[in-house]
Structure formats: C-alpha cells, structure tokens
Fold this protein.
Amino acid sequence: MMGHFDYLAPKTLAEALGALQDRGSGAAVLAGGTDLLVQLKQRKRDLSCLISVGSLPELKGIRKTPDGMLSVGAATPLGEIVSAAGLSREAACLAEAARKVGSSQVRNLATLGGNLCNAAPSADTAPVLLVMEAGARIAGPGKERVVPLEHFFTGPGATVLQPGEILVAVEIPQAPAGFAASYIKHSVRRAMDIAFVGVAALMVPGADGAGAARVRIGLGAVSPTPMRARKAEAALEGQPFSVELAARAGEIAATECSPITDLRASAEYRREMVAVLTRRALVAAWESAQGGAAR
Amino acid sequence: MKKPITLNVNGESHRLEVPVHRTLVDVLRDDLGLTGTKKGCDMGECGACTVLLDGKAVNSCLVLAVQADGRQVTTIEGLAVNGKLDRLQETFIEHGAIQCGFCTPGMILSAKALLAENAKPTETEVREGLAGNLCRCTGYVKIVEAVLAASGSPDQAGSPEQKEKD
Ligand SMILES: Cc1cc2nc3c(=O)[nH]c(=O)nc-3n(C[C@H](O)[C@H](O)[C@H](O)COP(=O)(O)OP(=O)(O)OC[C@H]3O[C@@H](n4cnc5c(N)ncnc54)[C@H](O)[C@@H]3O)c2cc1C
Ligand code: FES
Ligand code: FES
C-alpha cells in the first residue's frame, strides 16, 4: 500500500511546469511509475502530489530532426524505443540497450526519461547514450536548457534537474560515418535483473582502416554515476586495433571506475569484469564497424 | 483524493470513483470483482498481475487506476468469446501448462501480446517474451510448448481490442 497523495494529469508541458511549481517540494513527476510507484510502496519516498507526464505531447515519440539528430521524448516507453530500432543506426544502438531493461511488461510502462531521472548508476540506457554523446533537453519555469548527458548525473539517484524542472527529450546527435556501437550488460539472470556491470563502446574506424579514429567507452554500475572511461579511450585512438590493445584499454578502464561492494557483487569482481567486458564491447564494436564498412 | 474515471474492461465501460493511490490490479480485483488477475509481489517482479492496456502487456500493480482512465484493459476474463476459450487457453490445457494456476492468467496475457506482435515466434523469443512471468510449479517447458502450439493459428493475429469489435 502506498501513502496518500494527490494526482494531476496536465494536458500540456506548460501546465505541468506550473503544477510542479505550485505544489513545491512534495510533488514529483510520474512517468511510467516502474521506479516511483515501487519506491512509494516501499515507503522509500513520501510525496504529496504526483504529476503525470505520460500523456504530454511534448514528451512523446521519436523523431529525426532536419540536422540529423534523433530526438526521443522523455515519456517514450522503452518498448516503443525497441520497436523503433529501424529508424537510424543511433536508434538501433539505443534500442539494443532498451531491450535489456526488465521484462516486456516493464518496458511497456518504463520510459527513457524515467530511467535517466531515477539516476541509478546501473540504468541500462545511460552507457550507450554517453557514448553517443546525447544531450538532455530540460524545461524549467520560463526556460529550456540542454545539458550533455555526461554532466546530467551528479550521484546515485541525483541529477542536475532543479526543483520545478522536467526532462523533455534526449537528443542524440548523428554519429560520425562508419561508426558502430555495442552494449554488454552483465547480470546474474539473463532477463529481469539489474546490471552489476554495463559497458558500451562506440568506434569510428580511421581512414587507414587499421585502427579507430574515435573511441568512446561508457560504464554503468561501477561508479556513483554512469561514466565515460576517457583514459581507456585515449589509449586506443589512432592506434592499430588489436584484441591485445582492447584488453589493455579494458585494464585502464578498470582503474578509472570506482565500484562498490553490494548485494549483487563485490568491488573487486566488478573491477575485473569492467576489464573483461570493456575488451569484449570494444571487439564487438570494432567487428561490427568492419562489417558495416564491407556492406 | 478521489477521481472519477472510466475504465473500459474487456469491452465493457465502467464509471468509477477511485482513490488516486489505488493500483489497477486492486480496482480490477476488489472493485470490479475480476479476480482472474492475480497479485503476487505487487512490485513488478512476478508478472501475475499482467493485463493488456491498449493491447500492450503491463504489470497492473505498477499502474495507478487513474492512469488507465479512458483506456482499454483486457483481463483473462475477456479472452474467451461467447464461452469459447481462446486458442492459448486451449493449448495451455492440452499441454498441461497449468499446475496451481496462479501464474496462468498473466502468462496467457503476456503470450497473447507476444503473438499479436510476432505470430510465429521462436522458442527463444517465447522465453524472452515471458521473462517477466514467474512460475513456481511447471518449470516453464510445458508453458513454452503451449505458446508455440498456439502460435501461427489465425485467431492470434491482431490485437484483442480489434477482435472484440468484430
Ligand atoms: C521489475 C523491474 C525490473 C527492472 N529492470 C530494470 C533493468 O533491467 N534496467 C534498468 O535500467 N532499470 C530497470 N528497472 C527500473 C525502471 O523500470 C527503469 O528505471 C525505468 O526506465 C523508469 O522509468 P519510469 O518511466 O517508470 O519512471 P518513473 O518511475 O515514473 O520515474 C522515475 C523517477 O524519475 C522522475 N522522472 C520521470 N520522468 C521524468 C521527467 N520527464 N522529468 C523529470 N523527472 C522525471 C520521477 O519523478 C522519478 O523520480 C526495473 C524496474 C522493475 C520494477
Ligand atoms: S503482482 Fe504485479 S508483478 Fe507481481
Ligand atoms: S502453475 Fe503454479 S505458479 Fe505457475
């Protein structure tokens, strides 16, 4: 059973922002509810008002903008993102991560915005969005701003969102030609389980074809926020690619993260797995980029 | 706080006044007496409470009844048409895919949504589609067989809402 709260279902973003302002600190945005309702049932949160954003037109849907950007409404369910994989290569990368969240029933409710705003270090959509250098479009009273996703998370469960602000959309810029990305989620059960390590890798092959001109690595569940492993990226860029080099980058990534020990895994094990999974994610992205070039 | 809502359940429209913190599973079971929908964990983990909301499988313990206002809900009670069981209900019986039966309504509705999107799933796709439904009795093998047996049959194509209108 949940405590008592008011429920508002505004029809427009402006109305939602007004309600959030009026209701003050006891109010929260309700999207799919798969995190928030569970937290209310477990009495981890106590709220006086839920403001539903599930049917705000400004927060719905996936579209390509004229400049090649993919804009995904914050209230778009993950199930819809999985189905939209064919829209672009960027959409396919996001879909690959989205399909690893929970069950089909959860994905039909859970939204992309909820996954990011809940800000679990293990949020499955975060690492791929980090490597695609996505931006978070945020609306507040009277203004909008775009924050690079890398600066969006500030700690476990914490983001740059100020009181009264709503995440409107996630904007994914067109990735460089020839890029390929991969996401590896490591959990006890294959389905319906929170990642204890998540690794995304993105590679752009260089002109000579021997190595990657650009490399980006995103890590989940191994630091207070999802993070980029920039030293590991630098070790690969411009070098001829090999499995040995990918393994070395994995070891560097393992030193960059700061995992904790919890119910799911120990810090030591997580660090080991970062090394192994980073190597695998890099090799997978590299092979997929080669396949893409040949096609 | 209470709110007036209209729930369209299995093709029938209900006007209700519900406390806003009440979940859909509780309203279905306690207010409408549709106890075919089960409540196990109440946390989105077990899938016993699965219903179709606008044709998509969801955990009804993670939906507030007010969020379902004006939308189409299909519960296990809505699958049989004029007393004739849905093909999935028949194959579950034929294959012995039911023991205690607690997971069955949720399993069948997840399978229903899966087959509406993918008429001929592979065994892996069936297992993935049912990953959010736990069964403590059967070991899943017979359930997967039952879903595969129902797949490809003509009455599984299209959404249940579509069928109700026919
Ligand atoms: C059984 C189960 C399995 C799960 N498995 C996974 C998994 O494998 N991987 C994973 O990453 N997660 C998993 N989750 C967690 C959850 O489903 C996801 O994090 C989901 O994406 C949350 O989205 P939501 O729309 O349900 O968010 P909600 O619960 O509605 O909201 C979450 C938080 O974000 C805030 N919020 C939501 N939208 C906005 C917005 N637009 N602007 C500002 N604030 C906003 C809310 O106020 C709340 O604090 C699981 C949950 C369950 C119940
Ligand atoms: S009761 Fe809803 S998932 Fe278990
Ligand atoms: S038949 Fe008993 S839980 Fe599945």
